[in-house]
Design brief:
A hairpin with a 5-residue loop joins strand 8 and strand 9. By secondary structure, this protein is of the alpha+beta class. The strands form two sheets. It has a six-stranded mixed sheet with strand order 5-6-2-1-8-9, covered by helices on one side. Strands 4-3-7-10 form a four-stranded antiparallel sheet. It is built from twelve helices and ten strands. The chain folds into two domains: 131 residues; 223 residues, no CATH class. It is globular. It is 58% helix and 16% strand.
Length: 406
């Protein structure tokens, strides 16, 4: 009964933390504004997952012509507060699966005083954001956010100096540290990695994999090579937390097969719910997550030493969390001339924050294990931490004794 109680408590903790991870989800669209003199070519992309927000009162989704009219009314170019001439009407074009893309163009009387405007979705989702990528005729690439509070952006101010342009390298590091210290979903994930690691070598493997993974996607997302939908990333971050927690439970109770079946079944039920209109995440994402979860939990439960497997898996998990790290940077106007320095400093700060958090958590787990207040897995982690500490102390004592004899 005590074991069941502990498992129940662990599941409650999992659900609470997953709820926190999903709480970061937000509505978003993407836009690209290419400026050629006084002409602005616009590409506006709406993820399919956002379209139901524009449904009719009876629940029927908007038609393509209605979406075209919606974009025509809400995404515009202004000069001195007046609407510029639309030289190319809004037209749908081929887009990636899961997205609707529209292109059009405006021509203003003069390039001076031009501004971009996007008011779509703010009336139905006040927290909605539109990512605006502005490409000037001087070859500058500028990333900005349009929000309910700032639906119009002057192109002259957008091409001005970024507030981060004069920030020091240490300020970039501080941004990365604070992202870890305020990102509770990442903290919970790191705690799960610590608890599942029975040896120092295991912990080194998982932290290394996680670091490599998030470093790659942090860079790719920040420079705009890959920028997946935030809602999908939040869901996958929640899944990584659940999988690590489930592995902890399965490892301590030797029921990885049961947990794998439960995890796979729940994800497939969510996919079925999406097919019947009860969910928002894509079916392929949920089915893929179910296959991955079942295989990972089964493999980790049957391998005597799963450390090397976790190196690969945490690398994959790191790729997911890296997109979450990048979102923190994308909320600000990035200095295009210092992107490499910003990325290196921010990533270094993330690593410092990670290592600080890991050391703090290890200390807490060790203290709890000494007081016999931990769950079944915690003493294991505490024991290897204690063994490492004792080995270091003995080695230091040996060197001191040898130096005294010499």
């Amino acid at each position: 009964m005590k074991a069941l109680g502990r498992i129940g408590l662990a599941f409650l903790i999992i659900l609470a933390n997953v709820a926190d991870a999903f709480a970061h989800t937000r509505s978003e669209t993407q836009s690209v504004w290419r400026i050629v003199g006084s002409t602005v070519h616009v590409a506006y992309t709406i993820p399919d997952i956002e379209i139901p927000r524009l449904a009719h009162p009876g629940g029927a989704p908007p038609s393509e012509s209605e979406l075209v009219d919606y974009v025509r009314r809400n995404v515009t170019v202004l000069r001195a507060g007046q609407l510029c001439e639309r030289t190319e009407d809004v037209r749908p074009i081929t887009a990636s699966t899961g997205f609707k893309r529209f292109e059009f163009a405006y021509k203003c009387a003069d390039a001076e005083g031009m501004s971009i405007h996007s008011s779509g979705f703010f009336s139905v989702v006040p927290t909605h954001v539109t990512y605006a990528q502005i490409v000037t005729d001087r070859g500058e690439f500028i990333s900005q956010l349009l929000t309910a509070a700032q639906q119009t952006l002057s192109l002259s101010s957008a091409s001005g100096q970024s507030p981060l342009q004069n920030a020091s390298f240490f300020e970039y590091i501080g941004m990365g540290i604070m992202h870890i210290f305020t990102g509770y979903d990442h903290q919970v994930f790191l705690l799960g990695l610590i608890l599942i690691s029975k040896r120092l070598r295991d912990l080194i493997f998982v932290i290394t994999g996680f670091t490599i993974g998030h470093s790659v996607t942090l860079a790719l997302a920040t420079i705009g090579v890959i920028r997946p939908h935030a809602e999908y990333i939040d869901a996958l971050i929640g899944l990584t937390i659940v999988l690590i927690a489930a592995e902890n439970i399965g490892d301590s109770n030797h029921r990885s097969g049961t947990l794998a079946s439960v995890m796979g079944g729940l994800l497939l039920l969510m996919a079925l719910g999406t097919m019947t209109g009860l969910g928002g995440l894509p079916v392929f994402l949920l089915v893929g997550a179910a296959i991955f979860a079942v295989n990972y939990l089964m493999l980790s439960g049957h391998l005597k030493d799963a450390a090397r497997l976790r190196l690969v898996v945490t690398l994959v998990f790191g790729l997911i969390h890296g997109f979450g790290f990048a979102r923190n940077l994308l909320d600000m106007q990035l200095p295009t001339g210092r992107l490499a320095e910003l990325l290196f400093g921010f990533n270094l700060g993330v690593e410092i924050g990670q290592l600080t958090l890991v050391c703090a958590l290890l200390t807490v787990v060790w203290l709890l294990s000494r007081l016999r207040l931990t769950l079944p897995l915690a003493p294991t982690c505490g024991n290897w931490f204690e063994r490492v500490t004792l080995r270091f102390a003995r080695a230091s004592s040996t060197r001191t004794t040898a130096s005294r004899r010499s």
